[in-house]
UniProtKB/TrEMBL annotation:
PANTHER family: GLUTAREDOXIN. The keyword Coiled coil does not apply. This is Glutaredoxin domain-containing protein. Its main location: cytoplasm. Residues 13-75 form the Glutaredoxin domain. Coiled coil: none annotated. It is found in: Cytoplasm. InterPro entries: GlrX-like_pln_2 (IPR011905), Glutaredoxin (IPR002109), Thioredoxin-like_sf (IPR036249). Pfam families: Glutaredoxin (PF00462). NCBIfam families: GlrX-like_plant.
């Protein structure tokens, strides 16, 4: 869990994704189109992938990816990021 917490604070916007996940790609494109600088961690390319997935779930993600952190705090996944504010 320490690795995920450390990585989630590397930049203002951090996205944990998998290279084959279309929802992760959609979230990345959204932030890119908005001009937001982001740090993307493709956990499927990390040797500790399984541990990172478990850590993200323990932090409150309903699914391990995409997981979006802003300012080091978990915002959520695709639904939370793309839902209009009410």
């Amino acid at each position: 869990m320490d690795k995920v917490l450390r990585m989630s604070s590397e930049k203002g916007v951090v996205i944990f994704s998998k290279s084959s996940c279309c929802l992760s790609y959609a979230v990345q494109v959204l932030f890119q189109d908005l001009g937001v600088s982001q740090k993307i961690h493709e956990i499927d390319k990390d040797p500790e992938c399984r541990e990172m997935e478990k850590a993200l779930m323990r932090l409150g993600c309903s699914k391990p990816v995409p997981a979006v952190f802003i300012g080091g705090k978990l915002v959520g996944s695709t639904n939370e990021v793309m839902s209009p504010c009410t």
